[in-house]
Amino acid sequence: MTSVETLDAGPVAALGALLDSGAPVPAAGDVLPPLWHWVALPRWPASSGIGVDGHPRRGDFLPSIDLPRRMFAGGEVTFHGDLRVGTEVVRESEVVSVEEKSGRSGRLAIVTVVTRLVDAGRDDLLVDERQDLIYRDAAPSPTSFPDPEPASAIAPAGPPLVAEDGGWRFVTDPTLLMRFSAATANPHRIHYDWPYATRVEGYPGLVVQGPLSTLVLAEALRLVHPDRVVRRLKHRNTAPLFCGDPAHVAVDRPAPDTAPDTAEMALRRPDGTALAGLTAELATLTSERHQP
């Protein structure tokens, strides 16, 4: 699938308002922070092509897989050049592999999508990206359903990153999830439709978007290293986070055998359970390059 698209300033401003981290929000001509192209290149599916779960029906770009649960599992991004707000890029995406296997929770399929972003004017490769999507069997039909939270308990909670000793609290609420789904053109119902998430897919509540957890880690990295440039970034989502559940963002110490210009970020539950992780290869920000 190939298309020519503009790095849209509107969703970029929306993400800046959503994160509300105090870091500068890129404007027209500025370099996008790492992973913000997920928001700057939204792709809304036609209403006639949406399936029961809110995602586009399978069999067009993504393969026809008869497993209902879809999860964002992680990937890797290499930044060869700068993505600037308002410029045109050629997006080339393809499904490169589909691997089916059996796990402890039943059947699953791993779908790998590779995307290249190329400067539309100069034909220079700017971004090379791999994303892994996991499809799983449905959960057993619930015999009882969780009670909805009282309205006072799910009111908007403010900025999602709240500084605390050793890192940040990651605070989520339904409004945050709705705004992120809108900014990223993501109609998956598990993120905003509580009855569907709990009664059809069997989750205990709304599911925090995997890309949102990863972008929060990338934003924390930007706050810690405002004078560095990310050249390569690996990210992985290992367990779901549910709306309103406590989680902590921390700066991890890289392993002794890693390169000196490596940074690691982690999202964990209070008991230490890993939810998501990010490893970045950094370079020094030069005077010729301006990023917010």
Helix/strand order: EHHEEEEEEHHHEEEE
Major sheet summary line:
11 strands, antiparallel
> Over all CA atoms, what is the radius of gyration?
19 Å
Please tally the helical runs, counting DSSP H or I stretches of 4 or more residues. 5
Largest sheet, spatial ordering of strands: 1-3-4-5-2-8-11-10-9-7-6
User: What percent of residues are in strands?
Assistant: 25-35%
Could you report the average pLDDT, rounded to the nearest whole number?
88
The percent of residues in helical segments reads: 10-25%
Total strands: 11
Structural class: alpha+beta
Oligomer: single chain
Label the overall shape. globular
Terminal CA distance reads 31 Å
Q: Report the uncertain regions.
A: none
Brief summary:
The chain is an alpha+beta fold. Helices cover 16% and strands 34% of the residues.
Structure, described:
The chain has 292 residues and is of the alpha+beta class. Helix content is 16%, strand content 34%. The chain has helices spanning 9-19, 37-40, 174-183, 194-200, 210-224, and strands at 2-6, 69-79, 88-103, 106-119, 125-136, 161-164, 167-170, 228-237, 248-252, 262-268, 274-284. The protein has an 11-stranded antiparallel beta sheet with strand order 1-3-4-5-2-8-11-10-9-7-6, with helices on one face. A hairpin with a 5-residue loop joins strand 10 (262-268) and strand 11. Helix 1 packs antiparallel against helix 3 (174-183). The longest helix is centred in the last third of the chain and has 15 residues, at 210-224. The mean pLDDT is 88.
